[in-house]
């Protein structure tokens, strides 16, 4: 699963740029680093959530200047974000009761994607990974594309938030 680091998920330490480790309160009581650019999408009860979430993320990337991409590297970075959003939302659909919320934030160094759901399962890449077989590749893809990822659960609250962090393009 996630790598071990000396600071909480989302807090990238003392050199995290303008957003640092200050917190932004969310409705569920969890804290997130204050990001210069944040987007939220309520998915609770919505249909067609995977394309809806991907389109929402694409609009955020346009608003933040990632798209249209000026270089192949920037285009690849944007495509990675869209793929991670698709995989996390798909996992919530397949292994939980569907996603409740998509949260995307971007600062100078990291873009963070969070998908909240009411599921009790623990996402993990399948091992051994079988490249030639259909299905079961979602968290393996997330693990390969992201700087880090993990799961946050609030004590006494059903569900979880699966988060993933990708580096911003240079």
From TrEMBL:
It comes from the Bacteria. Gene3D superfamilies: Histidine kinase-like ATPase, C-terminal domain. Residues 51-163 form the Histidine kinase/HSP90-like ATPase domain. InterPro entries: Anti-sigma-factor_SerPK, HATPase_C_sf, HATPase_dom. The keyword Kinase applies. Residues 1-33, 116-135 are annotated as: Disordered. One of its GO terms (molecular function) is protein serine/threonine kinase activity. Keywords: Kinase, Serine/threonine-protein kinase, Transferase. This is ATPase. It comes from Streptomyces flaveus.
